[in-house]
Design a protein that fits this description.
Elements (H helix, E strand, L loop, with lengths): L1 E2 L3 H13 L3 E4 L2 E4 L10 E4 L3 E5 L2 H8 L9 H9 L2 E6 H5 L9 H13 L2 E9 L2 E7 L1
Antiparallel strand pairs: 1-5, 2-3, 3-4, 4-5, 6-7, 7-8
């Protein structure tokens, strides 16, 4: 999720990707084409002033329909509210969704290592006195 005051620009950008067959469109959201370039299906949606990216179609559909359940813990809610930008990636969970059928033995070995040892990556960004302050933790 990230904020933008220019919904028109983001929508035009997604429409351009759709027009050039980079993304597909379903209702009010977009998603990646199944290919080697996109081994995971990703979904994109733009609401009034927020853009959302997810690997979960139901999440995107709920966001579009305004049905966001309270599945966020207090720490995550505070980080979203108190920062200009917030990014959270559970690497193990994301990698568990990777299709393993097209991978070589070496790639599978690396994938399994990161599944077992990958953690959560958190990126916070704020603006203070005209300066951007970024914190990344893993």
């Amino acid at each position: 999720m990230f904020g933008s005051e220019n919904k028109v620009f983001l929508t035009k950008l997604l429409d351009l990707a759709y027009k050039n067959n980079v993304l597909l469109k379903k209702g009010d959201y977009y998603y990646t084409v199944d290919s080697m370039e996109f081994p995971l299906r990703m979904y994109f949606a733009v609401t009034d002033d927020m853009a959302f990216i997810s690997t979960n179609e139901n999440e995107i559909q709920n966001i579009i329909n305004g049905k966001i359940d309270g599945g966020l813990d207090k720490k995550m809610i505070n980080n979203i509210i108190s920062n200009n930008a917030y990014f959270n990636l559970n690497l193990s969970e994301l990698l568990s969704r990777m299709p393993e059928g097209r991978m070589s033995n070496r790639e599978l070995k690396m994938l399994n290592y990161f599944k077992e040892n990958g953690g959560v990556i958190e990126w916070l960004n704020n603006f203070n006195n005209g300066r951007s302050m970024t914190t990344i933790s893993m």
